[in-house]
Amino acid sequence: MKIETREEGSTVVISPSGRLDGVGAPALEAELSGVARRGRRVVLDGRGLDFISSAGLRALLVGAKACAEQGGELAIAALRPECRAVMEASGLLAFLDYYETGVAALVAGPRPRDRAGGAAIGIGERHEGPAVVLLLAGRLDSSSAPVLTARIAASVKRGGVHVVLDCEDLDYISSAGLRAVLMGARACRREGGKLAVAALAPQCRTIMEMSGFLSVIDYRETREAALATMASR
User: Fold this and answer.
1) For the whole prediction, is pTM greater than 0.85?
2) Of 114-118, 132-136, 144-148, which has the strongest mean pLDDT?
3) Strands 41-45, 11-20: pairing kind
4) What is the DSSP string of 50-62?
5) What percent of the chain has pLDDT over 70?
6) How many whole angstroms separate alpha carbon 222 and alpha carbon 233?
């Protein structure tokens, strides 16, 4: 696989060509991670790709996470139908910004961010039975993870040791977000309580599955199912 990288204004365009499989994926992952360290917006022009394997999908996911954690973002553009079908089936197109052409991706520019420079997250709160339900919306990344950690800690301090994270409206979760969830679960357990994650959107569930996180955290398909586990304790 060949990889060409160029700058278009404030955006870095990466154009891979050939097969994005177990052989080519490490090179693309390294290129994306290197560009991500500059905190730039990255557009991956997929016109030259004729195949994407599961290893290729992982490389894109790792690259997107790296970009987000450094204050940038990754957009995908101009995939061939066979490659787009693979990404749609995996749920990644619901997680990544996708544009039909490279020009459209460049014109679109970066997504709006909050005043602190990070992606905004909304956290609603309600009490249902024995649990505090935190309703997450937006992006749970390095800029917003501390907000969630603080909210969970505050709930536990007030006696809400059973916490359900309703993730139906969560668009993205990074490794920093995963750590925040894990820290929250530990905080609940220390006080004899429990934390459960519920209703992940496909793109966020893909991230958790690929990271192995769903094997160490209590996950339920619906908020109601998560609440039922709290009531049974």
Assistant:
1) no
2) 132-136
3) parallel
4) EEE-HHHHHHHHH
5) 92
6) 18
